[in-house]
Protein 1
Amino acid sequence: MKKSLAILLFSLGGLSFAPLSMAEAPQVGTNFEAVAQPISTDNAAKIEVMEIFWYGCIHCYDMEKPLSTWIKKLPADVYFKRMPGLPNASWAPMAKAFYAMETLGVAEKLHTPLFEAVHKSKSLNPTDEKAIIAWVTQQSRMDKAKVDGAFKSFTINTNLNRAAQVFRASGATGVPSLVIDGKYITSSTMNGGNSQALKVADYMIENVRKDRAAASAKSAPAAKK
């Protein structure tokens, strides 16, 4: 049974819709959803877009090219971040790789090559932590003990716990998924492709922006006559 309009608007926190035709407008429950639980963002002054991904996912690998192009065109009031998906223990080795590479300062350099090692050359098993550590050591040209330390640090465990919490809170059922402003989630699966998911993300960003502007105008003190 379909939700009433009042319940639907309540569940989405009052998200307004851009002036698109009904044929064009993304639909709640089809193209996007409210997250299971609100997720805190890094910068409340801007609109956050967070990709939840896994290096072992071929669809995430395919998303990289259109996503990279899309990120370059983001407006100044929007910022992008990545979060490794962690629905189960088998995804942990690649989540560790993501955070270890960030700690070592080589994440930007090795992000795409790591995807390629798994999906293009198929030389790396995404669940084999020892092999992943060896790969990062070789590609970064760093001392193995330093790389080992990054993989096994207390910070890594803290980040893994956070990643698992975010995955549950988002309500994601797969990857890649995009979480908008910690409130809404869309995905390639929901929209039939990566490019379509990014278009829905654009739509949601615009509506979050309008909602913020409306809320700001409502809270502003009335102008003195």
Protein 2
Amino acid sequence: MSLPSPWRSGGRRAWRIARPLLAIYLTVVLMFALLERLLVYPAPRLDGADCVAADLPYEDVFFAAEDGTRLHGWYVPHPQPRAVVLFAHGNGENVASLAPLLRLLHDRVAVTTFAWDYRGYGRSGGKPHEENLLSDARTAQRWLAARAGVRPEDVVVYGRSLGGGVAVGLASQHLVRGLVLERTFAGLVETAAHHFPWLPVRWLMKNRFPSIERIASYRGPLLQSHGTADEVVPFDMGRRLFEAAGSANKRFITCEGADHNCPQPDDFYDALVEFLDSLPPVADVALAETAAPNGHAPRNPR
């Protein structure tokens, strides 16, 4: 049975209206897929003149990724560190922008820190992707351990925002002494879906960082914080990530009224000192067994 003529003509008119709208939508979807790397990794660059912090006792470091890509970072040693920390920054940061935080970690928390730039960031070469960020994190962990004179498993991993996804990925696959997370997501895809509910991001995204799945396999100590007014990664996402962690030794700090880019409150750093002091002691590493790069003598944290 054929439809009456008015129904057929009405359907054609609806299709004529819907067709350009569908074309626009599909174009936007395609553009999102093509621009995913740029959206996830804005990758702020630096030239040599800008990559300076005169009041920070750091060493400018270049090291090679597993595939030979040249990566850059800052090593900030402390003469008597309470911990050796690998820091993974957010997607809109680079090591130079971290100078105030690295100074604070050095002076107030008394840690040795190594922060490195992801591929395409700062003075690091290559192009960033989830797989190479995780691989490079492991390389950075090993470099830091050798430079500081500790075992890789005695490094504390500290991640902020996107860096939290990197830190969770590393800690879920390799032993670390402790894990510290700031304002990070349960999953990057879920976060994108929150901001773009009208896009099929769950089908499109290649960089996924499923931290809520990965952190379930992490059994070590965890300190996590999140702001209640975070507009980039909603508070409940951070809380669900914490609840999914497999660790029995974990603490969550709620930062009341803090948005995604607010400085951490003073009590966070007090808690960080307590957390680091509560970690299992670092094993003694014989100097002869530690291959410190660039001829530097390794040093053991207290």
